[in-house]
Amino acid sequence: MRYNYFFVLFISLIIYASAAYSGEKNYSACGATPEEARKELGRSLYTNVKSRVSKRVTENRNSFFDYFTAKTTAVNEQSSRIVLCDVNMQKEDGQFCASVTHKALSECARKRLERQMNYVVTNLPDTESVRLKKARAWLDEIVSSGNLYTAVGKQAFDQGKLKKLVAIENDLLKLLDNQYVRFAIEGTAVKIIVDDTRKVLPNQDIKLKVGTHAYQITSPGHCAINKTFKLTSKGRAIIRHDMSDFTYPEITFTSNPPTAVLKIGGNSSKVGVTRTVKRCEGVLPYAFSLEGVNKTGKVKLAPGLKKTVAVKFTPPSILSTAKAYRGGKKLWQFQFHTIFPTHKDNGTGMLTGGKVSWVSFQDTFRWGYSGAFASDGDNSYAYELSVELNLQLLDYNLGREALFLGPFVLIPSIGIETGLAYHTLDGENDFGDANASNWEAFYQSYFIFRPKLGIDVAFNKDFLVSLNLSRSLFMNKSNIVSAGIGFRF
Questions:
Q1: Cα 373 to Cα 130: distance, rounded to the nearest angstrom
Q2: Which of 20-29, 373-382, 435-444 has the largest mean confidence?
Q3: Taking burial as the number of CB atoms within 10 A of a residue's CB, which of 409, 436, 449, 481 is the most buried?
Q4: Rounded distance between C-alpha atoms, residue 335 and residue 456, angstroms
Q5: What confidence tens digit (pLDDT) does each residue in 309-319 have?
Q6: Nearest to 267, CA basis, from 285, 292, 251
Q7: Maximal C-alpha separation, the chain
Q8: Of 209, 231, 205, 227, whose CA–CA distance to 217 is shortest?
Q9: CATH of 179-245, one of 2.60.40.1120, 1.10.760.10, 3.30.450.40, 3.40.50.720
């Protein structure tokens, strides 16, 4: 009996094994609805396939469908689940159960792979977005069929046909593995040309081959962008441009005075008007002229340039007047002279009178002699004799250009005035002390030392109006204002 038991067991194992390898094995799964049952059946088969293939991928990467499974992260994983056919659906204990036989799966895999062998990459649609979408769908189908093939075993297909499918799969992967570029462009009405002939749209993924590519971006009112970029394998590149940085150059030409004649590129143009130049490189020549004086220059053009060219003219009449006051001009000046003294008791007594000066104007300095008389209208008088030296700011830090206002030359100056004064005194509110018994009293009453500021307005070579402010460091630190006219006899 013992031997009969082992014999029966041995025969049972042979029958079980034969059934398993004869394709009679069933796969089943249940769910609340037929759709859920079918998904669960496919999921269980996919999980089983994935675990088995992962092991083979680690051990041997030369298997056809091992390569598919390794690439599933590059395609839609959901669509690479096993697609089932010839599924039986039954309802048991309130649930729906889906089942399929091993033989049915094998036949399903064979039919699918036979159909996919007819895929021809060169027959994909010409429109790029449609072509890439179709190519991804084909690759998803082949990967899904590969999973099914792995589940049923290699008896579903012969090795020769698998090689052909491998070639199709490689062509699809090459098509989808090309570098993708996106032109992220800020702006409207943009036209993009890649490699001289290919027109592409902004803000969309564009498939391009690995390597160096040239592109041109154009838009109305903007300079064309002509650049190159290099693509490397397996990745995406984003090329960003803001078209507001590539507007046509805008240039404003101004002159002082604004009556100058302007020519831009040899053509007459108005001063003070902003112009849009429809050129984005090179130089733009310009020329100003005023009363026989010419000033020329060039503007280097560039995309997005916004520039103001300001030219300052000194008219010949102004230059002639200015030169006279830098070249030894000698004038007599007659000024209204006012003294505002500050006394020790904080009282004040204003004296008014006149001042006569003989002044010699040199290149940078002017010097001269002065005599002044002032009175308070009562019993106090001031008599002054002084020498003054001033630094003329006629061409100081102005590139020897005259400072002028309209037809008048402005001559600022800074300097010192020193000399002696005699004051008659009447009361404690007058100058100095009644008893000049020491040097302090002498300085307060007789010594002039005044830093001064002034400005002359020259009408022509022989006539000017002047205004001067000074501060006496002695004589009770009085303030002096003088204003008057100068002319040559």
A1: 103
A2: 373-382
A3: 409
A4: 12
A5: 999 877 777 87
A6: 285
A7: 164
A8: 227
A9: 2.60.40.1120
